[in-house]
């Protein structure tokens, strides 16, 4: 089933990331928290992160979340998990440039909700803290062109990553405009390779 936003996220009661993380670490009757990290730990109009727990995770950055949940991954996240494991990581953490849930990116809100963005940044900083040398897979594709605020959100993520000396990667062909490939249609044995995210942002002019 597709997810169409019910309205602006400014009309939604948004949990802080820290409160969402506390809930994600609380036992759930719906899924095994020893395996899954899911924040918030309930289906809502937004999602900070979804992934598996491990000691050597790969952080994958898409544009915005859709309908996936623990034990109910969509095809994009199945591909993310497969490529993470195939490249030597023991877990994957799906994160997004913007946290609003929308199956069709055309349904994303036209104006960035600064509160949602700041809490999403907190989620990213937390993911970066899980590794001594965080590995981040840029995987948003040309969808970044859907809203004018998205490149600025990426710039904030890159700045947060630089503090932790994050290493950025991509997979598959780069688009003519320089966008990193979306995970969905990648080969099963796709190899990650370094991605110069600073040069990419400079190319976008942000």
Overview features:
5 helices; 206 residues; seven-stranded mixed beta sheet
List strands and helices in order, with pairings.
Layout: H1 17-24, E1 36-39, E2 49-52, E3 57-62, H2 75-86, E4 91-96, H3 114-129, E5 135-138, H4 150-163, E6 167-170, E7 193-194, H5 197-204
Parallel strand pairs: 3-4, 3-5, 5-6
Antiparallel strand pairs: 1-2, 2-4, 6-7
Q: Report the order of strands and helices.
A: HEEEHEHEHEEH
Sheet/helix structural class: alpha/beta
Rg computed from alpha carbons, rounded to a whole number of angstroms? 16 Å
Number of strands: 7
Largest beta-sheet characterization:
7 strands, mixed
Mean pLDDT: 96
Distance between the termini: 35 Å
Helical stretch tally: 5
Helix content: 25-40%
Oligomer: single chain
Adjacency order of strands in the biggest sheet: 1-2-4-3-5-6-7
Low-confidence stretches: none
Inertia-based shape:
globular
Beta content: 5-15%
């Amino acid at each position: 089933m597709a997810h169409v936003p019910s309205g602006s996220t400014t009309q939604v009661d948004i949990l802080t990331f820290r409160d969402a993380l506390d809930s994600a670490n609380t036992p759930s009757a719906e899924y095994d928290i020893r395996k899954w990290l899911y924040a918030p730990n309930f289906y809502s109009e937004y999602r900070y992160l979804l992934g598996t727990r491990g000691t050597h995770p790969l952080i994958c950055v898409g544009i915005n979340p859709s309908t996936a949940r623990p034990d109910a991954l969509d095809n994009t996240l199945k591909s993310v998990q497969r490529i993470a494991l195939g490249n030597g990581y023991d877990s994957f953490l799906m994160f997004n440039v913007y946290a609003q849930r929308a199956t069709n990116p055309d349904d994303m809100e036209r104006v960035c909700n600064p509160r949602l963005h700041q809490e999403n940044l907190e989620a990213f900083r937390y993911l970066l803290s899980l590794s001594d040398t965080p590995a981040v897979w840029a995987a948003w594709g040309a969808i970044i062109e859907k809203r004018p605020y998205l490149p600025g959100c990426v710039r904030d993520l890159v700045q947060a990553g630089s503090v932790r000396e994050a290493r950025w990667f991509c997979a598959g062909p780069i688009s003519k405009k320089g966008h990193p490939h979306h995970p969905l249609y990648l080969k099963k044995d796709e190899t990650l390779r370094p991605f110069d995210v600073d040069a990419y942002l400079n190319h976008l002019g942000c």
